[in-house]
Amino acid sequence: MIKTAKFGGSSVAGAAQFQKVKHIIEADPSRRIVVVSAAGKRDKADHKLTDLLYLCHAHLQYGVSCDEIFSTIRERFLTLRDELGLRYDIESELDALYQKLDRSISADLLVSRGEYFTARLMAEYLGYAFVDAGDCVFFGLDGQIDREKTYAAISEAFEKHGRIVIPGFYGKLPTGRVKVMTRGGSDITGALAAAAVEADVYENWTDVSGILMADPRIVNKPRPIAKATYAELREMAFMGASVLHEESVAPVKDKGITLNIRNTNALDDPGTVIVPSTENDVADERFLTGIAGRRNFTVLTVFKRNLNDSSVMRQALEILDRYHTKIEHITLGLDSFAFVVSSSALGDSVFNLISDLKKACRPDDIRIDDGIALVAAVGRRMTFRPGISGRLFKALGEKGVNIRTIAQGADELSIIIGVDDCNYETAIRVLYDGFAG
Ligand code: ASP
After folding, report:
1. When you count CB atoms within 10 A of the terminal residue's CB, does the N or C end of the chain come out lower?
2. In this predicted structure, what is the pLDDT of residue 437?
3. Predicted local confidence at residue 312, as pLDDT
4. Distance of alpha carbon 364 from alpha carbon 344, whole angstroms
5. Domain residue spans in the chain?
6. Does the CB atom of residue 300 touch ligand 1 within 6 A?
């Protein structure tokens, strides 16, 4: 059994958090590959090292001294090392870095040092080998991860050392320069490391006990999702639930690796397990896995008698495409069709777009409804079960929620409804209370 354990910034924020990580690693000898983010905030008033490093770079760009910020960064690392009783000569490396601080230093190189130093300290603390991401995570010239090259290098390092720590968030370009991923990218490094060694589990340790079934700002203390499939996770993330970095899912999903999101500060919580597929799910009245949603949509409805002339719809689609308007949903009636689109993406171009639609489609009427919110009820246990949507709609109707649009994917994994913005929170609560929580 091999587990890859990735620890986020809050899990490595200070000496006390490092101790928790050590405890977790020692509790299970199969946790043989560790990936860390840069140290995050120790408390609300604190700063993430990555933010400080970006700030440092911004100062350099404007020719303003970054000495004060750099000494804060230096202090954080020295304190961490000393509190943990480690011997790593971090001063020499920090001094060398300080010498390089001028306008020409790349933001990527400077910012990547947050993960680099955190991983160096973690490797010594755990007694694991340090493997630099610069030597095992590779980008192609197109800026995308070169998965094959990366997998080969990580598995070679793993074979060689048996227990390794890799800094997250960065890798190297073919030119030899360091490149960072987008924010939160250590999740991707963790997934690559898990995929490289075909780990049994990719553990993602963070400061929450898994993915919540609904937004905690709307539902009071929603429960975490115990188990979901990758397909459900995708639906939840697409509909606004905050989960892992988007690009971190593919490497583990493609290899059929189980993903487990856990809380470093609550070891007894099992967290959320994401699996490639589930069989023999017990039929349960609580058939929703989660509820997610997004606000600020507009519905554009085109009315035209005898719509079976499909060219009208095609022309309308072409016009939306011309305005780079991404369509969330399309609903179709006998004499009308409607597009649900993001209001902010539409912006002021709405007036030109409508005038083009009028010219091309010669509609009987066009209607624009702003202030629409989309709510997704996601659940693999709804699939191929009759009567589910009826029950959801009945519950919503009883609480006075009027449904403006309805969309269900062909895989029946989610039902997405459009409601007036004022009904958004009620809709989420009704679905959670009735079918999830
Ligand atoms: N340290 C980086 C960030 O703050 C990457 C990460 O934490 O995953 O975004």
Report:
1. N
2. 72
3. 86
4. 26
5. 3-207, 290-435
6. no
Indicate if ligand 1 lies below 6 Å from the C-beta of 10: no
- Element at 155 (helix H, strand E): helix 147-161
Distance CA 118, CA 348 (A): 46
The single residue listed with the structure tokens 């020692």 is 26
Instruction: Give whole-number Cα distances, 123 to 11, 22, 64, 120, 191, in Å.
Output: 15, 10, 34, 5, 19
Our answer on whether the CB atom of 183 is closer than 6 Å to any ligand 1 atom is yes
Q: What is the predicted pLDDT for the residue at 332?
A: 84
With a cut of 70, which residues of the chain have pLDDT below it? 280-284, 308-310
Q: What is the 3-state secondary structure (H, E, C) of 47-63?
A: CCHHHHHHHHHHHHHCC
Task: Check if 204 has its Cβ closer than 6 Å to any atom of ligand 1.
Answer: no
262 CB near ligand 1 (under 6 Å): no
Q: 3-207 — its CATH code?
A: 3.40.1160.10
60 CA to centre of ligand 1 in angstroms: 21
Rounded CA-CA distance 313/334 in Å is 12
- Fold for 290-435, please state it: VC0802-like (3.30.2130)
The amino acid sitting at 127 is: G
Which atom of ligand 1 sits closest to the CA of residue 8?
A: 7
